[in-house]
Design goal:
By secondary structure, the protein is mostly helical. The protein folds into three domains: about 1-100, no CATH class; about 105-210; about 215-314, no CATH class. Helices cover about 65% and strands about 0% of the residues. The chain has 14 helices and two strands; from the N terminus they run ααααααααααααββαα. The protein has helices at about 5-25, 25-40, 50, 60, 65-80, 85-100, 120-135, 145-170, 180-185, 195-210, 220-230, 235-245, 270-285, 290-305; strands at about 250, 255. A two-stranded antiparallel ribbon has the order 1-2.
């Protein structure tokens, strides 16, 4: 991670905690990695270009395929670190310590570490969302430092969003559903009581979201569905999921996917958007067949494209 950028640290914290959790809950992963380490270059998990040195002729060396092969093998070799408690604990503490150093006195996080850089509402929102997602996925963070950071950040976030809300009351054309990100992030911290002013804001924003979801891109619909479902509007959330279902394409060889996805500030690629839709459908209501079909498409994309290393890839 870039230890000077809060969002980079938060993304890596998310990926590290999630990867460790998945690895520990699936013993076969450790067995497969140990087998790969024992087999070395003969392992089926080693990149084909890494195995076949003769393929690395001059022209091929200049291509991106060789670099990708090197990256794949490096990633496989690093997977064994997930079972090195001492090493992972040290890396975890380093990331958390860097985030603590970045957090400002008001509880917010700046985008970048340098003197005079103020707290950023957007950066703080990203950090909170990633920590909240881990908790929502069932990875309880028994880390007093992280919990204290989240508590302070949430107080800053509530306060700043209320200021924006109060400014919204002064304009004639109000956009209450524009606070959907706040509604979503706050749904991840349902155990933390809302301040009185924020409670009113939440109710109005949720009410607006029940009407304003129809013209949204697929990814935003998925976010609305989850936020509304957690906010008690389960019937509306189900209608949104049905809308997502109607726009889906299903093919036996490809699975279930969406061909009309828009990439925006929240998503960098179609896999990230599809993963969000998968999460929404799984949470609000979908058959196991549908879930498996969406997973099939995502895994097929992994075979032909690099997911990257961010939390979106996770």
């Amino acid at each position: 991670p870039n230890y000077h950028i809060a969002t980079s640290l938060a993304h890596n914290l998310f990926a590290e905690v999630l990867a460790q959790g998945v690895a520990k809950s699936n013993p076969l992963i450790k067995t497969a990695i140990q087998q790969w380490m024992a087999d070395g270059a003969d392992s089926t998990l080693t990149s084909m270009l890494e195995k076949n040195k003769d393929l690395k002729i001059t022209d091929l060396l200049a291509s991106p395929w060789v670099n990708e092969a090197d990256r794949q093998s490096l990633r496989m070799s690093k997977l064994i670190d997930l079972f090195d408690e001492k090493k992972m604990s040290a890396e975890h503490k380093k990331i958390v310590g860097a985030l603590q150093k970045l957090q400002r006195a008001d509880g917010g996080f700046p985008w970048y570490e340098y003197n005079g850089c103020r707290s950023s509402l957007w950066t703080t929102e990203v950090v909170l969302e990633l920590i909240g997602e881990l908790q929502h996925l069932g990875y309880t963070l028994d880390d007093a430092d992280i919990n204290q950071m989240a508590k302070k950040a949430l107080a800053y976030y509530d306060s700043e969003m209320l200021k924006l809300w109060n400014q919204q009351q002064k304009v004639s054309k109000k956009n209450y559903s524009g606070f959907s990100s706040y509604v979503y992030v706050r749904s991840l911290f349902s155990g933390v009581k809302l301040p009185s002013g924020n409670d009113k804001m939440m109710k109005k924003a949720l009410s607006a979201m029940t009407k304003d979801w129809k013209g949204l891109p697929m990814g935003e619909k998925a976010y609305f569905a989850m936020a509304l479902n957690r906010g008690g509007y389960k019937k509306v959330a189900s209608r949104i999921v049905e809308s997502l279902r109607q726009f889906a394409i299903v093919k036996p060889e490809l699975g279930m996917y969406w061909d009309n996805l828009q990439i925006g500030w929240r998503y960098f690629d179609k896999v990230a958007v599809t993963a969000t839709i998968l999460e929404a459908m799984h949470e609000v209501g979908a058959s196991q067949t549908e879930i498996d079909q969406i997973r099939k498409w995502i895994l097929l994309m992994k075979q032909s494209n690099d997911w990257g290393s961010s939390s979106l890839a996770a």
